[in-house]
Design brief:
Oligomer: heterodimer
Radius of gyration of chain B: 19 Å
Order of helices and strands of chain A: HHHHEEHHHHHHHH
Helix content of chain A: 55-70%
Number of helices of chain B: 10
Largest sheet of chain B: 6 strands, mixed
Number of domains of chain A: 1
Largest sheet of chain A: 2 strands, antiparallel
Radius of gyration of chain A: 20 Å
Number of strands of chain B: 10
Mean pLDDT of chain A: 86
Mean pLDDT of chain B: 90
Strand content of chain A: under 5%
Amino acid sequence: MNESVLVLLLLSAIVVTGLSMLMGYAGQVSLGQASFTMIGAYTAALIATHGRPTWLGLLAAPFVATAAAALIGIPLLRLRGHRLAFATLAVQLVLLSVVGQQAWTGGDIGLQGIPLLNIGGYEFSGDRPYIYLALAALLLVVLITRNVVASRPGRGLRALATSEVAAESSGVPVATYKLVVFSLSAGFAGLAGGIYAFYIGYVSPGSFPVLLSFEYVVMVVVGGAGTIWGALAGATAITLLLQWLNDLGTREGMPASAPAVLSYAVYGVLLILVVLFLPRGLVPSATSWWARHVRWPRRRTSEPADTPSTAPKEMHYEPN
Amino acid sequence: MTSLLEVHDVGKAFGGVYAVREVGLTVAEGELRGVIGPNGAGKSTLFNLISGHLLPDHGTLTYAGRRLERLTPHARAKLGIAIVFQGARLFLGMTALENVMVGAHARTRHGFLSAALRLPAHRREERAIRADALEALDRVGLKDWADRAAEELPLGQQRSLQVARALCARPRLLLLDEPASGLRAAEREALAQLIESLRGEGLTTLLVEHDVAFVARLADRISVLDLGAHIAEGTPAEIRQDERVIAAYLGKEAA
């Protein structure tokens, strides 16, 4: 694996950790998570190209993305299940079209000539420093997620994923909690976007297609929603697969449309296969397989394969 | 005795038809009040008006001197109102202990920021919540189930788990919606004893229940609803002899 793929993998993992918390713990689906990556990237790019310190751009990226999510989340999170998913998708389509037409965002061409990130006199150039930066950001995000999930508000989130009515009556402010976790996951995406802007050196609407949002969701589902390791495994598996498909599609003799067709088709096929055969995703399936077959092999006979002893964490929606 | 909950003249209509109409009742501090009525009497609607999952079209609800009717359910929970729902509204994918710990939400305060930073005060609160939840589980006889997934529990234990979740909130008013429905005789007996012992500790309870015998055994006073209207109130003995009640409800069952 070359180093630029590793940077992009780590950045995806940052976004997917947040999305996995949103989907797996709070039971809310966002099909427009790349909107927040884009907002973070543009925030960093705008600040840096206007002669402000680049570190300020990196710092502002997650906060602006969080604020944007908090704002649009107020009306959006009144929707549930697939309605919320489509609304977040619509947000991204609107954002892409608006950004593509504004002069101050550079229109369809985007913002170019973003200076290299400079923190305390150290200039980040080349792949290696960005690998460490992305790794540090991922560690921070994983740490925050782990702490939040295993806490009072984390329990509230998991509770409202099953029953908003019962969670409310236990004192969980459901609407506020949903808004906070939505904003937090957007902040993670914004942080990844900020690093991306400095790493690539330019941002344009074309860098944040709807397909990128789908990619994040596929990573969450493949890895296993609601597990931190699942987010990392999903991001890794999908990034490597895409890389391989891209190599395959751009080989000599392949038609020009091959890379796009391959990636779209593979998302579809992969999603169907995972939902059919590993509905809980790679990591939860692997850990329960491990528990059944390796750690306690004697329990194999007493426990049928489709009812693992660790309860599956699935998403439940209440019809209003 | 001072009153804890006053329901005054509340009404709620669905599509122009009143499910509850001009219903009033006053529950004293420490009282166990039963609410009975045949199917469609408006019991569940009244329950949801008090819990906050429905808003009344008119009328007032006063709890400990505060007006309730426009408060969200979680605000009511913070005031000390805890609920055991009909059926088993448990949180799936969480252990029995975690389910009960959610109940403490109403009286604890640490949020996302202190959780993300793992502040010492948050960790202290977590330990206290865990201890309280274990105590509540012990209280309803589920201590051995603490680390089992909530959905693995039999129905009777799931109901008890909901009671433990409500108790972990240290409520001032406990609302029980058809707690005995679907339970076997032994489970029903255990539940009755639990409710009785809570009353012994002075916990004010509103018990909405289809099973008249179950309510008559436990309640200090009973309110009777029929077709959305409040038709009688009194002690279990008085209710048994009330002609309107016999006509509306007991009469039909006897026939």
